[in-house]
Write a structure and sequence with these properties.
The complex is a heterodimer of chains A (about 90) and B (about 450). By secondary structure, chain A is an alpha+beta fold. In chain A, a hairpin with a 2-residue loop joins strand 2 and strand 3. In chain B, helix 5 packs across helix 6 and helix 8 runs parallel beside helix 10. Chain B is α/β, with parallel strands linked by helices. Chain B is globular, with a radius of gyration of 21 Å. The chains are: A alpha+beta (about 90), B alpha/beta (about 450).
Amino acid sequence: MRAVITVIGKDTVGILHKVSGICAAHNANIIEVTQSVMQDMFAMIMMADISNITSDFAALSDEMAEFGKSECLDIHCMHEDIFNSMHEI
Amino acid sequence: MLNTFNILETIRMIQDQCLDIRTITMGISLLDCIDPDIDKACAKVYDKITTKAQNLVKTGEQIEKEYGIPIVNKRISVTPIALLAAACPKENPVKFAKILQKAADTCGVNFLGGYSALVHKGFSAGDLELIRSIPEALAETSNVCSSVNIGSTRSGINMDAAALMGKIVRQTAELTADNQCIGAAKLVVFCNAVEDNPFMAGAFHGIGEPDCEIHVGVSGPGVVRAAIAKYPDASIDEIADVIKKTAFKITRMGQLVGSRASQMLNVPFGIVDLSLAPTPAIGDSVAHILEGMGLECCGTHGTTAALALLNDAVKKGGVMASSNVGGLSGAFIPVSEDAGMIDAAVNGTLCIEKLEAMTAVCSVGLDMIVVPGDIPADTISAIIADEAAIGMVNNKTTAVRLIPAIGKKEGDMLEFGGLLGSGPVMPVNQKSASKFISRGGRIPAPMHSIKN
């Protein structure tokens, strides 16, 4: 089971650090990260293994959403199934 | 494999184009709650609904968080209550409506449908009592929805029922006149009603359905509109392809949410209703899709053709995406719930006659249309009969949900708020159909009903 975490917003110090910190706190293992900064906009897509998370997935996505709100970042933490089902036959 | 483009496309659909799951609806059979003692029947109904659906809202919210997709409504549909009312002939069926409201409150659902009767060939025990109690039931409750099926392709149109429903629709509006006539917005008159419809106000749990099941209704007019906007000069068949591909993606999401809900609630998965259901929100309008195809305003000449194309492409795209397609499946055209339709009705381009033509090629009928408060009951019955005839002859579901705006006239507005939106009072033909309606009887089923 994997989750896709997307982060878009104004670039500031330590976004990657803080997002991966939340993942670590829930024991979600980060598998892949693509990231780019265009002018001052930060865009990142992260794939994390959530098979062994210590909380339920809703708690992880709640915490991500809260962090996003506090930092004015647009963060989505979604189960990979939604992308697979929508884009693959 | 996942790629960045696909991930961002999905997120854009949800965030910018109002993509959502319109409803997960739990269908619950109440056949085992029938009892000649109405108080015992009510107690059984309450217990069954609150047991089966106790985790429905919680599960919906959990799925929302898991997949990051909003699930706007959590609803319940039940066996037509006329079947329960039949066992207690001396009692007022409104008792059932009140217990349904209590069950809806306990479960925390947005709507509960099934205060219904199926009378397409005639009235049986309980039907007339239930129908006559609809105005009071809808005035006394806030989340209970009612529907009556008055015709079908196989049996023809019960004109006695059409005549009666004209009066009932009017009375329902009158009893809630101090609250925007909201009662009438919770009452649908059907021809060819489907038994597994997850959408309100017409949802009920048919007697051929299992004891309990989960249906999903998807939405997504905004996504289709955005997809079409990317092809400003494409030919019509290219547009049809774009809609098909978009409908496929939307429906796949519905299928995923439905299977997940069914698994979490341990209830069989019923159907995905692959309907384009608009909301009054900006960017979530079916009318704007039609305008995106090149019409200056929804309701002008060409609207019926554009809607036929849209309805067909939505079905073709969606049907491959789900193992069980059902319900109404197609494009909805509720006037008050669609920002583009409201504008078109206000500026006079969209009239009831055009809407009637549109219902011949889309998945529903005359939906959420506000009519003048002085409309005679016979005229409402005649509109119902016209619409039922379209459904009967074309082998499709049609419905009428008219809201007589008591005390208001053409040009005024009714404001329902929320998903129900707001609607301008639309003019109706002033000539009478009283004599035709007062004849009573049944319109015989069409020739093509004899298929066996």
